[in-house]
């Protein structure tokens, strides 16, 4: 059974299949954190973006720590905060900008992996792109 059926993320699904935390749970953590961090924010502010990213990363790591029962994993959270330059949601037929981010790793494909996620809302002009990596370690 495939958790993610969107063919545009099929490669991400394969990589994420090794996740020690279900990707639906990771998505929920990311979405809830962003909703909380941007609760009273309506517009992107470059001066505040570093603080937002730091807060998001710390809260996502806390959420992962709370959900993780696998003691032998280390996690890395990458966050990119993006200003949407039009009021149109980024899923529309006329996107407000283009972005491509890629990652690679030399790891054990049976135990290590990475998962990507995008948070967007019509309440702000901000999108957040996450990459969460997990690496199995023999030394917890």
From TrEMBL:
It is found in: Cell projection. One of its GO terms (molecular function) is dynein intermediate chain binding. Keywords: Cell projection. Gene3D superfamilies: Tctex-1. GO terms for biological process: microtubule-based movement. InterPro entries: Tctex-1-like, Tctex-1-like_sf. One of its GO terms (cellular component) is cytoplasmic dynein complex. Belongs to the TDA2 family. PANTHER family: DYNEIN LIGHT CHAIN TCTEX-TYPE (PTHR21255:SF4), T-COMPLEX-ASSOCIATED-TESTIS-EXPRESSED 1/ DYNEIN LIGHT CHAIN (PTHR21255). This is Topoisomerase I damage affected protein 2. The lineage of its organism: Eukaryota, Fungi, Dikarya, Ascomycota, Saccharomycotina.
